[in-house]
Each structure stands twice: as C-alpha cells, then as structure tokens.
Design brief:
With 315 residues, the protein is an alpha/beta fold. Helix content is 25%, strand content 29%. The strands form three sheets. Strands 6-7-8-3-9-10-11 form a seven-stranded mixed sheet, with helices on both faces. A four-stranded antiparallel sheet has the order 2-1-4-5, with helices on one face. The chain is globular, with a radius of gyration of 23 Å.
C-alpha cells in the first residue's frame, strides 16, 4: 500500500481570532485654560473575545477616559483603538452611530443615565430595540423576556426605576445595555452606589451574561470586590497599564478548589514597565535605580550606593 504524504502547502494554519478590544500606544490630551493634561500616555490594552476584565486605578489615572473612547463618546489624540472589528479612531459619524447601537453596550454608575424614569423596565428595553433597530420586531418581546429572566428581574418588568431596589435597577440597566446583543459590554463603576451584598449580586449577574452569551466585558471600578469575579485585573497608573493580576482555579492538596492570583508588571514595546508603588516604597527606590542582568532575572537596586549591602533588591 502506498502512503501519500499530504501537501504542507495545503494545510491551513489555525485561525487566530482578533481581540474584541485592542489599544496600542493610545494618547489622549486635554487642554483647559491653556494647560495640557495627558489623561492617557501611550496606553496598551488587549481583551480577547469572551473575556471579563476589571480595569482599576486611582482617580485621574485615565480609566474613565479610556472607557469613553472605547464607547465611541470621545476620540483619542493619537494611537490605535479597535473594538469589535471597528476602528474607533478613524470611523465616521454614520459608522459611529451604528457602532454604538449594535456593537457595544454601556452601563453608567448612575441609574438616571441608564433608565428612563417614566418608563417601566420592559418599556426601557423596548425603547432600546426601537432606537437601534437591530433586533427584528417579531423577536423583541421574547428577547426582552429572556434577558430579564437571565438576570433574575423578570418579576419587575412592569415597574418603573423608582420602584426598584439599587440592585434591581442595575440589573435592569444591564438588560437594556444587552438589548441589542452587543459583542462588547462596557461598565463604568456599575457597583459604585451599591452595598457589598448587592454589588455581589450584580457582579454575579454580569458573570452569568459573560458566560451564557460570551459577551466580552470590561469593568472600570474602584471596588476591590470586583476582582474576585474576573479572571484578569488590569491596573492603570499615569495613563498607562502598569500591572495585571491573573486568576485561575486550582485544586489544593485536600481536593478543594481554590483561586490563585499572580501579579505581573506590564512591559510595553519600548521595554518600559511600572513597578508597583508598594514595591518602590518598601525598597526605597526613587529617581535613578541600578539594573543588573542575571541568568534568569533582572535585578533593580537603589541608585544610591548601599556599601555592598544586598538589601533593597527587586527582581
């Protein structure tokens, strides 16, 4: 029997799906009263299809600026930003409107910005359907019911926002944001006005949507509890991504499932990284530092002579 070898030229390499969010060297400069403020200073970010990611950082670090750019509400000064196949920097007015209606969903911290107060929950969803015109009319009622049941707020469909609890309001807002089946969900402090228990319920609902509908989700937050509901937490500092915390589930020696977190510094294309503030403070690193290349690591030492001491080494 003769074996015919397959032609390597005919073997197609596996397709690599592009990320749903990709930012490269993103810059945003604001000018107020003749003074320039750099909100974003060469930020890089990648969120793959179906990921649920938290974006954290101090006030003024650039988180909200980034989110408004990704939502198509602002334009960067320089750099690249692509979301769900759209070039957010270059798209014109018509594409921007279509993008906001069908490609992304958005949740604000304030309920008044998410829900029309004079409409019921079901009517708010219906309004989103009518304005966007993405979901066929014949499917809209059923789609609204599925969303409300998925988010466990089906019993309040006929109530107005003022008649809902804070958690119900945010889950209803989530239903409105998802009404037109967007690929990407952007949330700006979605638990900022909620207590701890209610926040957990809302985040669990967002996890359910992410898992069941594979909606890529990016959450900007100050709430440390959010990190426990995502697999990746990205920290922004001074307009750049500085560190990432990756979480995974493992089984310990006793057979219990435990969550393990590892923190990584983000290295940009120019080879720059930001050391966490607690590291630099603990080791007295400031101004200039000394670097040494070891076989398996890079060591960072204070720039001031330490008289041969090995104290104050970061690697």
């Amino acid at each position: 029997m003769t074996t015919v070898a397959s032609d390597p030229a005919k073997i197609e390499p596996p397709k690599i799906e592009p990320p749903d969010i990709l930012c490269s060297e993103l810059v945003r400069i604001f000018t107020a009263q003749g003074v320039e403020v750099q909100a974003l200073q060469g930020l890089n970010l990648r969120v793959d299809r179906g990921e649920m990611v938290a974006l954290v950082g101090a006030s003024g670090s650039g988180k909200s600026t980034l989110l408004t750019i990704l939502a198509g509400l602002d334009t960067p000064t320089a750099g690249v930003a692509r979301v769900a196949g759209h070039d957010v920097v270059a798209m014109g007015r018509r594409e921007r409107v279509a993008y906001q209606r069908s490609a992304v969903g958005f949740i604000w911290q304030q309920t008044s910005r998410n829900l029309l107060p004079y409409l019921s929950v079901a009517e708010n969803i219906a309004m989103a359907h009518v304005v966007a015109g993405v979901i066929p009319r014949s499917r809209r009622v059923a789609e609204a019911s599925r969303l409300l049941e998925l988010l466990e707020v089906g019993e309040v469909r006929d109530r107005r926002p003022a008649e809902l609890s804070g958690g119900q309001q945010q889950r209803a807002a989530l239903a409105v944001a998802l009404a037109n089946s967007p690929r990407v969900l952007l949330a700006d402090e979605p638990t900022g006005e909620l207590d701890e228990a209610t926040s957990a319920d809302v985040l669990a609902a967002m996890e359910t949507v992410n898992r069941e509908r594979q909606v890529t989700t990016l959450i900007v937050t100050h709430d440390p509890a959010v990190s426990e509901h995502v697999d990746r937490t990205i920290r922004i500092r001074d307009g750049r991504t500085s560190t990432e915390v990756l979480r995974r589930t493992e089984v310990d020696d006793d057979g219990r499932r435990v969550r393990v977190a590892e923190e990584y510094a983000v290295l940009d294309r120019a080879g720059r990284l930001q050391l966490p503030a607690e590291f630099t403070t603990a080791l007295g690193l400031r101004d200039r530092v000394r670097l040494s290349l070891e076989p398996d690591r890079v060591e960072v030492r204070p720039g001031v002579e330490d008289q041969g001491s090995d104290e104050g080494v970061a690697s």
